[in-house]
Amino acid sequence: MNVLRSLFKLLLVPLTLGALSSAPAFAQPEVIIREAPPPMRMEPMPGARPGYAWDRGHWRWEGRGYAWVPGHWQPVRHGARWEPGHWQARGPNWYWIEGHWVR
């Protein structure tokens, strides 16, 4: 019986650590807002930068209101194109769709 208990404890630690580390570190909770975001700001796109894709600025929900996040460069992933993050209306709610690479 002690051998089974020791074996169980020995297997429990790696399984627990594996389960805790399996979620991506960048995962964020889904953002759902009832208030529509303000109109997009016109932001000049800088000149081309080899090896990078421009991620345009966007409005981010800060808990009590929207705050502007300026555009920035994303390192290119070969064979993929950058799909910028955006707000999407679904009924009376607004959902944030995170920017991502599309193959």
From TrEMBL:
Top-level taxon: Bacteria
Keyword Signal in annotation: yes
Keywords, in A-Z order: Signal
InterPro entries listed in its UniProt record: YXWGXW_rpt (IPR024447)
Signal peptide range: 1-27
Protein name: YXWGXW repeat-containing protein
